[in-house]
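Researcher: Before we compare anything, I want clean individual predictions. No alignment, no superposition, just each chain on its own. First chain goes here; please echo the sequence and then give the structure tokens.
Model: Echoing the first chain and its structure:
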Amino acid sequence: MAASSSTSSISLQTLGRQTTHSNVVPPPPNVSRSFSQPVRMPVFRSDVNFLNKKVSFTTCNVLAEYESEGADDESSMNNNSNIKDDVFVTFFREAWPYFTAHRGSTFVVLLSAEVLDSSLLDPILMDISLLHGLGIKFVLVPGTHVQIDKLLAEKGREPKYVGRYRITDPDSLKAAMDSAGRIRLMIEAKLSPGPSLCSIRRHGENRRLHSNVSVASGNFLAAKKRGVVEGIDYEATGEVKKVDVLRIRERLDNDSIVILSNLGYSSSGGVLNCNTYEVATACALALGAEKLICIIDGPILDEWGRLIRFLTLEDADMLIRRRAKQSEIAANYVKAIGEEETSSILPKIGMTSNDRYTATFQNGVGFDNGNGLWSSEQGFAIGGQERLSRSNGYLSELAAAAFVCRGGVQRVHLLDGNVAGVLLKELFQRDGVGTMVASDLYEGTRMAKMDDLPGIRQIFKPLEDSGTLVRRTDEELLNALDSFIVVEREGQVIACAALFPFYEYKCGEVAAIAVSPDCRGQGQGDKLLDYIEKKASSIGLQSLFLLTTRTADWFVRRGFTECSIEDIPVERRKRINLSRGSKYYTKQLLPDTSGIRVDSMFA
């Protein structure tokens, strides 16, 4: 479900576990296209209308069999086989843009200790191995606090926490070292086999198929003792001093999955127990990762028990600040980034990803204080009794996500590890199944105002001179100004577009998409079109149409198809200048459940 439109009403409480019903899952790539026997593949209960035929699939796990009701005769089996083939092909074609977008990206994945201590781990690691094979670079940061506490309990010892940090006495350090070693070996073992070979031999012998997945670990984390803080000696508890970016990058570039332990090494040769979230957030910032993904033990829900699918950095920041008096971790977040108002701490409007704060190191000893990180902390630690008790729901994880977005990582995903296939569903479906916090979505995009007219006119002029756009008078622009959206950078309008709704026909016209020549090739046109599509869907429109003479290819690649003038609303048809010879294109809008909100454009 979509997130609440009012961030003030969001409550980050873990409500009752909800059974997740997925869409039909297509057969994996190694399944033969000939289904003479039942196919082994993951399927979850779902009723699907596909090609006007209703098929009901039974529930089964990853290793169970793909079945359907009413498949007692040969014709029914053939029919179901054809449908499965069609679903398989459709999935791959729809996933194509995601394959391209994610290939070569670096994802830092935090695996919470609760997930590691459950049966959820095996399928998650299987999916990480699959995605690694598709060209995604992974750094895995496993949590250990559950395992450490269990080992201490076996010895009759109680874990000791002060605030976000554990007091790591000698027994706790030994338990931390044992836990980290066992977890690393377990992850290495589970990742090593790679994909199954049973179904791909028909494609011929290939030595690459017999190569194990390479997993690398090492002394990538330099740490310093937390020391004595407010009279409390944290003993062998450490804080991140440096992440060895160069050597991690070397392993990633050599096609290895990197495991980054929360155990750091001091300059004197000691072992220090660091906070897992501090390590993961510091690593994501230092590497300049495209995503930080936190796989946790539950969903982030609003006060009505609905999944919060999306929060802007501004929304997340405001929500955390409002809870600063009730939550120590929220208060630490405010302290870490400063007391300024939200508007002043967010990245400047129009700042490109290359302009954002980037974590760097000075002389190999730590982060440069001038790069947008705060105080002496290198990442953001969460933990202790507040997180263990869940007294504030998943506010801790949200604070870490906002901190990382503030530092320059553009997307943070908080995923419920209880959802089968959660990584694949989040990364290869438009709306995902988790909570995304984003720092740059529609940044600088707003409704046009009177002061924007000169900027819009300046962008239009070369396109009007070339005949790409219809020439508009100042009066026409002024009358249509309420329907225009602009993208602003450093006080200048760099792109604009318009959406004219036809509510009676449940459709809208996209018009006048234009980008300043200096800013072309930066995705501003796509940002505007995506914004318009989401806005159109939010106001009940079911399709978009447009007229164009010179830019048909651009729109076709973005899902528009050519149509006839008869498909245009009658009142708009009357105003078409037929002498221009424009082509007509339309696009059906899918229901938007992403939770991404756009500003109110129409009263």
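Researcher: Okay. Second chain, same rules.
Model: Second chain and its structure:
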Amino acid sequence: MGGHNETLLKDPAIEEWIWMRNNTHRYFKINKRTTPTLIAMGIVFPGLLFWFASSTQDKLKLGPVVKKSVADMDPLVPSDPTTKEYKEWRVSDLDGSSLTEIHMVLSTVVLSYWCWKCKTAAEFHRNPAKFSGRSWQHFVFECTVFLVPMFMALTEHYLYTTIAVLIGTGIYYRKQIPNAPYRADKWAPDPRADSFKQSFAPGKITPKSYLSIYRAEMMLLTCFCILAVDFNVFPLKFAKVETFGTSIMDLGVGSFVFSAGVVGAKSVLPKRVDGKIVALSLWQQLKAGLRTSLPVLVLGIARFVLTESVDYQKHATEYGTHWNFFFTLGLLPICVPLGLSLCGDLRVTSMALLVVYQALYSLTPLGNWLEHADRTNIVAANREGIFSFVGYLAMFLLGMSLGQEVLPDAPTFKARRMRLVSVLGVWTTALISFFLFSFVLGVEPSRRFANAPYCFWVAGFNAAMLWVFMVIEEDVDSKLPPQLARAGRPAGYEVPVILEAINVNSLTTFLVANLLTGAINMQVETLLCTTVQSMLVLGGYTLMFMLPALLLYRSNIRLR
């Protein structure tokens, strides 16, 4: 009646098909046959789902956002664009832009990397011995492919033309990459699998090029926007919204925290000490967090003192009267070990934080108090910074959970490719959670209070960006012959020099960008600049905040 029947005749064709199905992951490769499936399931299907939800629920603001101007101001509003009051009014009560437009603009980031990767791989394939990613020609190309599209997209100059040029350029260089040598037995083990096994060491964490690209691109966008928003060439629909809505700068703030969480996972991963795998205790994690937090908190205090002393314009509903973003960044490493002590699973902790926080916000008088309370005491005056910290902490923990997946070295070639599935799972989970809150429960994203929809949107976007970077790297590198080992590739092949310099000195770059922003605003009347003057100032500013990172990188100095 049951059990195994040894007399059953087996069909060899069926047995072979079952074996191939169960072992597909061992031989999966991005090629002409699998690429359409990846694009359909990873890009087209989520995109259609997003379009369907937005069009049926009528939640997206697809119409253009009108710029504020002196002509349509209330008579009581200051009309002099050089005054502090006007500058604060200019960035108040903004509604942001649609998710479709935001993602369209930021698609230039992915396309820029794709163009650079394809060109670099094609050049390296032609002559590996003479390839050098640190030449002036490569530096000029990096500036052109990464900075120019960013300028064009974020100032609304020829966005669609920029996207079309990047796609055409990427296709041109992609076709220049020769196919990998033909393998007669396509089911034979991949020649690169042995090198992965031999180089693997438990607890070892080597730099991942897709992580470096991802972090540096987010930092570059953030640093550019913090000054660009003070010029008229930067559309106000990309600036931070007042309370509810979405914008590029809102996404940039969250991405800064999420990406910090991804690399911050290194502090909680087991480490290899004297050949042994050692996990840090809670006290050791707290001490490490304090060492990390102290300089950032000092910067926050210094920023508050300086802005108050020079009467610099500030938007109170952004973080509060006295709070600033450095305080949020500085407190995160201290609170993370405490959250880990409650529950070892970062995903559970972050989800619990967001659900409880959103429930208190939506179902209790807390939400009304946060939105409308007078600033009569220290807590009420800084309620945005204090309470949004809960959301940013959950976002940081979500980033750390993703970092635990992608930071450690893969033990096998199969495990390396399976990371694509892990990151895609995070993207899908965050996307579904965002739709659930925004389009089913009707809760709009709010960067001001870092509510659950906002955190899930940021997590989903960043997971999607990281996944696309991984797919591009896997696709392009699969074209290279196996003998071109990863360990033997020169500097400038894996990561562009300008992005690697920003990545290894990210906090320094962010600090320099903030100092330059304050100095330029005090010396230049940004709202009176013409388009040409604005672009020149922004171009010089971008090169200036990149220069210290490039000099430190060239000198092999890594600060933070």
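Researcher: What stands out in the second chain?
Model: Residues 57-67, 69-73 have pLDDT under 50 and may be disordered. Additionally, Strands lie at 271-273, 276-278.
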